[in-house]
């Protein structure tokens, strides 16, 4: 009976030792992600989304913008960000709808007007794009080279009749902050 208890104790100690990670904390070379500190304030989803846009991770940026929308509501900033992400991913119909909604909520951001103008140029609606980009340029007081270049392109395209093959055009996407996005049509 004494050997049985000793054997049971030995088996139990091996079983407990097998469950141990080898210390009180996670090792430095652990393949698992560190634990989340729930006591800290989360980074704003819009900030994360714009960083992901800068990195070229547009789908992840869209997810981050949507999460920001869940936290903040459908603010003009969130709508403009989602519309811009849709534009970069080539979802022109969705981008136009969301950017127009953002402008209904707050029509004082030249970046949003510019991005809507780009959507309209991509869709071949040069006359409306010209008017939209004029408004963006006026709101920006002519300070943005990207908006000026887009307006010039819209003016050039609205004055030229479209016959035959169109040449690929280069557009610059503008957002609040220090980055410009470049969208190129594929032939």
Structure description:
By secondary structure, the protein is mainly alpha-helical. It has one domain (44-161, 168-184): Serine Threonine Protein Phosphatase 5, Tetratricopeptide repeat (Alpha Horseshoe). Helix content is 60%, strand content 5%. The chain contains eight helices and two strands; from the N terminus they run ααααααααββ. The protein has a two-stranded antiparallel ribbon. β1 (170-174) and β2 form a beta hairpin. α7 (126-139) packs antiparallel against α8. The longest helix is centred in the first third of the chain and has 18 residues, at 2-19. The N and C termini lie far apart (85 Å).
Tags for this model:
mainly alpha, rod-shaped, Serine Threonine Protein Phosphatase 5, Tetratricopeptide repeat, 187 residues
The gist of it:
The chain is mostly helical and 187 residues long. The protein is built from eight helices and two strands, in the order ααααααααββ. Strands 1-2 form a two-stranded antiparallel ribbon.
CATH class equals Mainly Alpha
Number of domains: 1
Fraction in beta strands = 5-15%
- For the record, the CATH architecture stands as Alpha Horseshoe
Task: Please tell me what the overall shape is.
Answer: rod-shaped
Main structural class = mainly alpha
Count of extended strands: 2
**What is the share of helical residues?**
55-70%
Outline the biggest β-sheet: 2 strands, antiparallel
Count of separate DSSP helical elements: 8
Secondary-structure element order, as H and E? Answer: HHHHHHHHEE
CATH superfamily heading: Tetratricopeptide repeat domain
| Major β-sheet strand ordering | 1-2
CATH topology: Serine Threonine Protein Phosphatase 5, Tetratricopeptide repeat
Unreliably modeled segments? none
Mean pLDDT: 81
Radius of gyration: 27 Å
Termini separation: 85 Å
């Amino acid at each position: 009976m004494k050997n049985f208890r000793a054997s049971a104790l030995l088996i139990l100690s091996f079983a407990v030792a097998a469950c141990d990670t080898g210390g009180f904390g996670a090792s430095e070379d652990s393949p698992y992600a560190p634990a989340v500190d729930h006591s800290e304030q989360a980074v704003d989803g819009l900030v994360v989304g714009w960083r992901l846009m800068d990195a070229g991770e547009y789908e992840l940026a869209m997810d981050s913008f949507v999460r920001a929308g869940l936290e903040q509501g459908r603010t003009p900033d969130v709508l403009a960000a989602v519309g811009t992400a849709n534009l970069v991913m080539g979802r022109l119909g969705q981008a136009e709808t969301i950017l127009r909604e953002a402008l209904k909520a707050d029509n004082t951001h030249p970046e949003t007007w510019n991005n809507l103008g780009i959507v309209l140029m991509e869709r071949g609606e040069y006359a409306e794009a010209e008017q939209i980009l004029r408004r963006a340029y006026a709101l920006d007081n002519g300070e943005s080279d990207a908006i000026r270049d887009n307006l010039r392109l819209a003016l050039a395209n609205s004055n030229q009749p479209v016959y035959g093959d169109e040449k690929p055009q280069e557009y610059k996407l503008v957002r609040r902050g220090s980055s410009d996005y470049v969208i190129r049509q594929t032939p």
